[in-house]
Amino acid sequence: MNLRLSVLIQYNYIMSQIMFRSERATKDMGKMLGGEEEKDPDAERKEEERQEALRQQEEERKAKYAKMEAERESLRQGIRDKYGIKKKEEKEAEAQAAMEQASEGSLTRPKKAIPAGCGNEEEEEESIVDTVMKFLPGPLQDMFNKK
């Protein structure tokens, strides 16, 4: 009798699994054939919460790495102070200042300086024809200007 009961329980379990899977399969087939999906009424709210959680995680991650970078920079500055090393930007600024200071009292100009009138596109430049026209005699100038 005990054996029959265990067989009956197994049979019921197997049949319930078959029924559940077949019911699930028909729903999935209905979706595949173009049937309507089950719509979750809270789907938009859940999506907004998920997006907000992602934004928060991203902000926390950025804050964490900013804090780590600040700690690293303080360590770097301590090493620079200890050994008298200057930052790259400081070196470039000092070199620029030294170049400007050296060129102030000298007769030579820095290479980057462009004299007035050279290379300004705002000024109207004479064409080569106008320059040649200045050196031609009057009757020839009149003849070319008539055209």
From TrEMBL:
Gene3D superfamilies documented for this protein: Single Helix bin
One Pfam family, short name: Synaphin
Biased composition (Basic and acidic residues): 29-94
Location within or outside the cell: Cytoplasm, Cytosol; Perikaryon; Presynapse
Chief site of localization: cytoplasm
Regions annotated as coiled coil: none
Highest taxon, organism lineage: Eukaryota
Entries under SUPFAM superfamilies matching the protein: SNARE fusion complex
This protein's record includes keyword Coiled coil: yes
Keywords, comma-separated and alphabetical: Coiled coil, Cytoplasm, Exocytosis, Neurotransmitter transport, Synapse, Transport
GO CC terms of this entry: cytosol; perikaryon; SNARE complex; terminal bouton
UniProt region (Disordered), positions on chain: 29-126
GO biological process, one term: regulation of neurotransmitter secretion
A single GO molecular function term of this UniProt record: syntaxin binding
Protein family per UniProt: Belongs to the complexin/synaphin family.
Subunit structure: Binds to the SNARE core complex containing SNAP25, VAMP2 and STX1A.
Protein's name according to its UniProt entry: Complexin-1
